[in-house]
Specification:
It contains 13 helices and ten strands. With 342 residues, the protein is α/β, with parallel strands linked by helices.
C-alpha cells in the first residue's frame, strides 16, 4: 500500500471514529440564503462567515465532530481573530473537507430526473483544494422518485459521475465521500424507497468498481430508507432502521471504510433516533454507521443565534447539544429523555 493510500485510509477511518460524525456546512449561496431568510437576516459574506464560525468554534465540539464539509467560500475564510478555518479545525483534530460538485441539473431527455455536474476541470480544482488543506471531498447525486422515475439510465448517469469523481479524488490523495441521495419528496411508501435505494447503491458500487475506486479509502453518504413526506402511511422508527440496514447489507461492500447518513429533511430528533436504533440492534455491522447532517445539526443553533451577536454562545450551546446527541447515537447510547435534560 502506497503512502498516499495509507493516508487516505487513516483519514477515512478517522471520519467515522466511534462517537463522532460529520457536520455538513456546505450550503450553496441559494441554500444558505433560504436558511437566513427563515430568521430574517441578510446573507452576506460576513454573516455567512460569522454563522459558520459560531458552529466551527463551538467549544468541545471535537468530542463529537470528526470532520466538516465546507463550501468553497468557507474553505477560504478565517475566524474573527484571523486564523483560517481549515487551520483551526486541523489544530483541534477535526478534518476539513470540501463539496466539489457544481449542483444538479435536469437530465436531458428524462423529465423529472437530474444529474450532477462538475467533472469538467475537477482535477485542477482538487489540486487547489489539497493545497488549501482539504483532506476529503463530497459529491451529491439526486435521485427523485415519481411516476416512472427513476429510470435505469438516470441512475446510471449519476452513478457513473460519482465514480469518476471518486477516482479523481483518490488520484489526488483525497478521501471521496460518495453521496447518492434518494429524495424524500413525494407520496411513495417505504417499500418504494427501499427498492430505489437498493437499485441506486447497487449501480453506484458497480460503477465505483469499474473506475477502480478503492473502497477502503472512501466514505458512503446516503439516505435512510423512509417513506415520502406526503405518504399517508409513515413508517415506525424501528421499521426505518431495519429497512435501512437491510438495504445497506444488500448492496455495500464490507470493505467500505464507513457509512454516514444525511438527514434528508428529517427533523433533528427523528434522525438521531433512527441512527441510534441502527447502532443498538445487538449485531455488529460490517462498517461504522454515523452521521453527516446539515439541517438536523444546525436548525436549533440557527434559531438560537438568530443573527444576533449576543446570541453567539446560545447558538453554540444548541449546536453542541445536537452534536452530542448524534455522537451518542453512533454508539447506540442515545435516548429521547436526554433531549428534555438539555
Amino acid at each position: 500500500m502506497s503512502a498516499k493510500s495509507q493516508e487516505m485510509a487513516a483519514v477515512a477511518k478517522a471520519m467515522v471514529s466511534p462517537g463522532k460524525g460529520i457536520l455538513a456546512a456546505d450550503e450553496s449561496f441559494p441554500s444558505i440564503k433560504k436558511r437566513f431568510d427563515s430568521i430574517g437576516i441578510e446573507s452576506t459574506e460576513e454573516t455567512r462567515r460569522t454563522y459558520r464560525e459560531m458552529l466551527l468554534t463551538a467549544p468541545g465540539s471535537q468530542e463529537f465532530i470528526s470532520g466538516v464539509i465546507f463550501f468553497d467560500e468557507t474553505l477560504r475564510q478565517s475566524t474573527a481573530k484571523g486564523e483560517r478555518f481549515v487551520d483551526f479545525l486541523t489544530r483541534n483534530g477535526i478534518i476539513p473537507g470540501i463539496k466539489v460538485d457544481t449542483g444538479s441539473k435536469p437530465l436531458a431527455g428524462f423529465p423529472g430526473e437530474e444529474v450532477t455536474e462538475g467533472l469538467d476541470g475537477l482535477r485542477g480544482r482538487l489540486e487547489e483544494y489539497v493545497r488549501l488543506g482539504a483532506k476529503f471531498c463530497k459529491w451529491r447525486a439526486v435521485i427523485n422518485i415519481g411516476a416512472g422515475v427513476p429510470t435505469p439510465a438516470g441512475i446510471h448517469a449519476n452513478a457513473h459521475a460519482l465514480a469518476r469523481y471518486a477516482a479523481l479524488c483518490q488520484e489526488q490523495g483525497l478521501v471521496p465521500m460518495v453521496e447518492p441521495e434518494v429524495m424524500m419528496e413525494g407520496d411513495h411508501g417505504i417499500d418504494r424507497c427501499y427498492e430505489v435505494t437498493v437499485a441506486t447503491l447497487r449501480q453506484v458500487f458497480n460503477e465505483l468498481a469499474e473506475q477502480r475506486v478503492v473502497f477502503e479509502n472512501m466514505i458512503l453518504k446516503t439516505n435512510m430508507v423512509v417513506p415520502g413526506k406526503k405518504c399517508a402511511d409513515q413508517a415506525s422508527p424501528k421499521q426505518v432502521a431495519e429497512m435501512t440496514v437491510r438495504a445497506l447489507r444488500t448492496t455495500v461492500p464490507a470493505t467500505v471504510a464507513g457509512i454516514v447518513f444525511l438527514s434528508g429533511g428529517q427533523k433533528p430528533e427523528p434522525s438521531t433516533a433512527h441512527l441510534n436504533l441502527m447502532n443498538s440492534m445487538g449485531v455488529a455491522h460490517p462498517w461504522p454507521l454515523s452521521f453527516s447532517y446539515g439541517r438536523a445539526l444546525q436548525d436549533s443553533a440557527l434559531k438560537a443565534w438568530a443573527g444576533k451577536a449576543e446570541n453567539f454562545l446560545a447558538g453554540q450551546r444548541a449546536f453542541l447539544h445536537r452534536a452530542r446527541m448524534n455522537g451518542l447515537a453512533t454508539l447506540g447510547k442515545y435516548s429521547e429523555s436526554m433531549e428534555a435534560a438539555a
